[in-house]
């Protein structure tokens, strides 16, 4: 049974930073890719950052809107995903979701989801 549990969200002022964490359990085999998505009110969910987590992986990819500001990383030993966000902008306000894929790193292949953590930037 796969569980992804996010933490680290909160309210910050523009220019501030947050670090999101996602603890994964039961997700050990075919653990090919993990990612962060976000969904703002009234908008569709969008992929923010993804990281190839299979053996020998580590390559990353970012949405244009967060390049240079967000950093995704993964601790293979602790099976924990991170998203460092700095500096934050008001348009980053959204519910952030951790996601996992046993297939590829294509945005549409993520089948495991966390419950989300809210990020609010004022």
Provide a short characterization of the protein structure.
Helices cover 0% and strands 49% of the residues. It is mainly β and 122 residues long.
Could you walk me through the main structural features you see in this protein, from its secondary elements to its overall organization?
- The termini are far apart.
- The chain contains no helices and eleven strands.
- The protein is globular.
- The protein has strands at residues 3-7, 10-12, 18-25, 33-39, 46-52, 60-62, 70-75, 80-85, 94-101, 112-113, 117-121.
- The strands form two sheets. Strands 2, 4, 5, 6, 9, 10 and 11 form a seven-stranded mixed beta sheet that branches.
Nearest-integer average pLDDT = 93
Low-confidence regions: none
With helices defined by DSSP (H or I, 4 residues minimum), what is the helix count?
0
The computed structural class is: mainly beta
Q: What is the CA–CA distance across the termini?
A: 37 Å
What spatial form do the alpha-carbon principal axes imply? globular
- The total strand number stands at 11
What portion of residues belong to β-strands?
over 45%
Portion of residues in helices?
Answer: under 10%
Q: What is the string of SSEs from the N terminus onward?
A: EEEEEEEEEEE
Radius of gyration, rounded?
13 Å
User: What does the main sheet amount to?
Assistant: 7 strands, mixed
């Amino acid at each position: 049974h796969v569980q992804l549990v996010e933490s680290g969200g909160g309210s910050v002022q523009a220019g501030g930073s947050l670090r999101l964490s996602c603890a994964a359990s039961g997700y050990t085999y075919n653990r090919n890719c993990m990612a962060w998505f976000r969904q703002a009110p009234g908008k569709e969910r969008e992929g923010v950052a993804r990281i190839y987590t299979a053996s020998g992986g580590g390559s990353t990819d970012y949405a244009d809107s967060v390049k240079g500001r967000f950093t995704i990383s993964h601790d293979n030993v602790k099976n924990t995903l991170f998203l460092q966000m700095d500096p934050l902008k008001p348009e980053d306000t959204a519910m952030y979701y951790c996601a996992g894929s046993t297939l590829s790193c294509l945005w549409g292949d993520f089948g495991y989801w966390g419950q989300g953590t809210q990020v609010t930037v004022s």
